[in-house]
Amino acid sequence: MPLPGVNAGRLVGQGEEGCQNPCPDQINIMSESTTGLPAILPAEGLHVVHLFYRVEQESWQYLEPAERRKRRDHLEKLVKQIQSQPDTQLLPYSVVSPKADMGFMLLTPDLQVADRSSKMLGEALGAGILTPVFSWLSMTERSEYMTSEAEYSAELKAEGIDPAAPEFATKIAEFHDRMEKYMRRRVYPELPEAQEWPVFCFYPMSKRRMHQLNWYALPFEDRKRLMGGHAKIGRTYAGRVLQLITGSTGLDDMEWGVTLFAKTTTEIKAIVYEMRFDVVSSHYAEFGEFFIGIRMGITDLCNRLNL
């Protein structure tokens, strides 16, 4: 299904007026054959794509000012069109440090939409302007270590609450409500507003499979106990750090992508540092490259990059 207002039947290239990629009133769909393909939907959750680009300023500055304006307008229009897609979220951000200049975090159920949108974003300023420097594909997922109703019932009994008492039924109902909200936050998250949570952090990670320290050789109950302690540290940052853990086993080079949102870099640094001392991290975690960004609207991002 093409994006709203898009002519899916033509490529955006050098048009009738000699317009270089891309013309401002057109969206590059790559080719007609990619627009009518059936949706590729997961059994549950969303596909998540993190994209990081370097802006080739030398090539950009060679363009005439009017041409630069056209291409910038095209990028802004494209971002807004992707954001208008059903069940789709697209977050632009400026990357701090020369690892990259700009990036996008895209969440959408359909892998076709994720793929098409990613390619369109990379081509939005024309050939040779945005160079991809890093990307990550993952999916939202449930935690396999969630507390079950049976486990929570056993905890209540251990506290001396009679299963036949009204209090027991009330607590079980509250438990189901908490678990439902938790599941939706993990599997179908609604990401926070940039104004309130402007600091963005992303890094990939895996669990170790070394001879002496093999996470996957541990019994499930041991892993669940360790992850419970790990999660307890994370909960102490409620209201200061929002996190989204997405699974990338079989999809990318490591096993998870970790996205953090905060109001200041102090909170990002604090939670990552404290977590390092927890056994789950100190003994069993392997980390990839870290990226820090500042979330902003696409117009502000273009201004930040002098586009």
Low-confidence stretches: 1-34
- Please identify the structural class as seen in this structure: alpha+beta
Name the shape in a single word: elongated
Distinct helical segment count: 9
Spell out the key features of this protein:
elongated; 307 residues; Alpha-Beta Plaits; disordered N terminus; 9 strands
Describe the structure.
The chain is an alpha+beta fold. It has a domain at 37-141: Alpha-Beta Plaits, CATH 3.30.70.1030. Helix content is 36%, strand content 21%. The protein contains nine helices and nine strands. It has helices at 57-62, 65-83, 111-123, 149-158, 166-187, 220-235, 265-276, 279-282, 298-304, and strands at 47-55, 89-96, 102-108, 130-140, 199-207, 241-247, 256-262, 285-287, 291-295. Helix 4 runs antiparallel to helix 5 (166-187). The two termini are 30 Å apart. The model is unreliable at 1-34 (pLDDT under 50).
Blueprint of the fold:
Layout: E1 47-55, H1 57-62, H2 65-83, E2 89-96, E3 102-108, H3 111-123, E4 130-140, H4 149-158, H5 166-187, E5 199-207, H6 220-235, E6 241-247, E7 256-262, H7 265-276, H8 279-282, E8 285-287, E9 291-295, H9 298-304
Antiparallel strand pairs: 1-3, 1-4, 2-3, 2-9, 4-6, 5-7, 5-8, 5-9, 6-7
Helix pairs in contact: 4-5
Give a summary of the structure in a few sentences.
The chain is α+β, with helices and mostly antiparallel strands. The protein is 36% helix and 21% strand.
